[in-house]
Sequence to fold (192 residues):
Amino acid sequence: MTTLETGFRRASQASLVLSIVLIIFGVLAIALPMATSVGVVIVIGWIAVLDGIVQLVHAFQSQGIGHIAWKLLVAVVYIVAGGYFIAHPVLATATFTLVLGIFLFAEGVADVVAYFATRKSGSSPWMLLDGIVTLFLGFLIWNQWPVSSLWVIGTLVGISMIMTGTTRLMMTLAARKLVGEAGDSRLSQKAA
Fold:
């Protein structure tokens, strides 16, 4: 077995483990949507705070009072918003969910309008279906808000994790199969 084959075997085993972990965590996220939602909001809050700190440092490295003032304002907004998300994760989850519902509704309207604007030029009916489903999701979130805050973010994150884990698992298995077939054909060529 070559070094390349050994490296591939280790990488594919790690990829399989990561795939299974993603799928398990995705199922847990769907099973515990409120905890996942609050966890996601806290992580976003910390990311915003850290980004605000970076913006603050970068502001003092900028040239010109206008650039410095703008970057300081952006830094303060990021730090305050991130601090709010960390200090009040349940309220931030409700806010985040409402913004998500509005975004999905607007995206759905835009997709439906785009379909009807371009349907004579051969627009795909999938665009219309995507628009209708997205519009429906946005309406569903908005119509059930703030109760939808208890499940939306966690459920969507869980679905995403399951899909990512499944995709990664299938790609890893396909790569293993290709490498196995390549190794088999190399052995048969040596035997001939």
Q: What stands out?
A: The chain has one domain: 28-163. The chain has a mean pLDDT of 86. Helices lie at 3-31, 33-59, 65-87, 89-118, 125-143, 152-191. DSSP finds six helices and no strands in the chain.
